[in-house]
Write a structure and sequence with these properties.
Layout: E1 16-17, H1 20-23, H2 28-43, H3 45-68, E2 75-78, H4 81-91, E3 99-103, H5 108-121, E4 124-128, H6 140-148, E5 155-161, H7 173-183, E6 186-191, H8 202-205, E7 209-213, E8 225-229, H9 257-262, H10 271-285, H11 288-310, E9 326-330, H12 337-348, E10 350-351, E11 354-357, E12 360-366, H13 373-387
Parallel strand pairs: 1-10, 3-4, 3-5, 5-6, 6-7
Antiparallel strand pairs: 2-8, 7-8, 9-12, 11-12
Helix pairs in contact: 2-3, 2-10, 3-10, 4-5, 6-7, 11-13, 12-13
């Protein structure tokens, strides 16, 4: 890939940064826009937060909605996906014996949310296993069927990731949501890694609730996410923090009921949300669709090279659609992954997460536009030395 792209980001020159998936990385232009918004806030806080912010956020909401295939009236800004999941989880009226169906690939913080809800309400969390590696002949429809086989007459809610955090696996949420809607089962999609990494049309997915991050693969400033709520389920949503929006008229700041109820919880810094437009401008200016293709190709090279070293079978079939810019590679079971992580960073300057999942060990590799073959070479060198 074009190494000049790295100069558009603030990533340290002495680090091979292969961990975009954890917190993202903001381009210089976007970070500048973020700081400009913060300065505007400080120059006249009363005007900014008292009179201007409603229109500003509505403008970004329209821009974001067009990007992800959702009406702006159905979107509300949240700091991150975990926050969005909690809004929905704490709003729904689940009871003893109700079942929440999830996969064994879900993000730990969100699993904690459902365990909390389970203890509070008596609802049961049922975890459906999706096996990896994915067989070369397996189709997305078969993954959906495996998961949907866990539905019972007590299933009230499905919670599933669009792209999983521990295994970077793209799941067939479209099929699952459509089937759930036919059965009258509510669906919540964890889209933490989807916006900016794969094309999105949330309306077509047909989920009741979809929450995503903009600060990861969409590359906005940190602390920018969204919650989408279908119009026919918005009456179910309650504020996680009850504040002025609870009693405000719907015309207040020209906001929708959803935004009025959830967004204004007291004094806050809206700059991360406002930076989303700059992030979308950046992606348009630098033809990021092409960059994503290049990232996927480089990721495939990285996965192949490490699988060759370890002799372990690939996790994904060798065809597109199962992953995009983030993927995992399995490590030998006897390796100490904490020691490996430290050695990769201290000796080879490689920033990369190690994953322990289902009694197996993995590296999760993220490839963004600022990465190059030099980063992969450093990772491969570190793996070779660590396995000798």
């Amino acid at each position: 890939m074009d190494k000049s792209i790295r100069n558009l980001f603030q990533i340290r020159e002495n680090v091979h940064f292969l961990n975009h998936g954890s917190f993202g990385a903001c381009p210089k232009k976007v970070f500048q826009a973020y700081q400009d918004w913060q300065r505007s806030l400080e120059e006249q806080p009363v005007a900014f937060l008292g009179r201007e912010i409603g229109d500003l956020l509505d403008n970004v909401r329209r821009r974001l909605g067009a990007e992800i295939g959702a009406s702006p009236d159905d979107l509300v800004f949240v700091p991150n996906v975990t926050h969005g999941v909690n809004i929905v989880a704490r709003s729904l009226k689940l009871g003893g014996g109700d079942e929440i169906l999830i996969t064994n690939h879900e993000y730990g913080a969100c699993k904690n949310t459902w365990e909390f809800i389970s203890k509070k309400t008596g609802a049961l969390v049922k975890e459906r296993e999706i096996m990896i590696p994915i067989a070369p002949t397996l189709r997305q429809e078969e993954i959906a069927d495996q998961f949907l086989a866990g539905i019972t007459e007590k299933t009230k809610l499905i919670f599933i990731s669009h792209i999983t955090s521990p295994t970077a696996l793209r799941l067939p949420v479209e099929i699952i949501c459509q089937k759930a809607r036919q059965l009258g089962i509510l669906t919540i999609i964890d889209g933490a890694h989807a916006p900016g990494q794969i094309p999105l049309n949330i309306a077509e997915i047909s989920a009741d609730f979809y929450t995503g991050n903009c600060h990861k693969w969409m590359m906005s400033a940190k602390g920018a996410g969204f919650l989408y709520v279908r119009p026919d389920t918005q009456h179910l949503i309650e504020p996680l923090v009850v504040s002025w929006g609870y009693s405000a008229p719907l015309s207040h700041h020209n906001k929708t009921r959803l935004a009025t109820l959830l967004e204004w919880t007291g004094t806050f810094d809206p700059a991360p949300y406002l930076s989303i437009s700059a992030a979308l401008d950046f992606a348009d200016e630098y033809n990021w669709d092409f960059t994503r293709d290049e990232c996927e190709n480089l990721l495939q090279v990285a996965l192949d090279r490490i699988n060759e070293i370890t002799g372990i079978d690939p996790i994904y079939p060798n065809r597109k659609g199962w992953y995009r810019q983030m993927g995992i590679v399995e490590l030998p079971g006897d390796i100490n992954v904490q020691n490996l992580k430290l050695r990769l960073y201290n000796d080879f300057h490689v920033e990369i997460p190690t994953i322990e999942w289902m009694n197996r060990k993995f590296l999760r590799i993220s490839i963004q536009g600022y990465n190059s073959e030099d980063d992969i070479d450093a990772l491969v060198a570190g793996i070779k030395c660590s396995l000798e």
